[in-house]
Amino acid sequence: MARKDAQKAGAPRGLSDVIGIVLLAAGLLLLVAQLSFDPYDLPAHRNPPNQTPNNWIGVAGAWGANVLFQWFGAGAFVLPFILLVFGGGYLFEMFSYLQRRWAWAGVLFVSSL
Question: What is the rounded distance in angstroms from the CA atom of residue 28 to the CA atom of residue 87?
Answer without folding.
Answer: 10
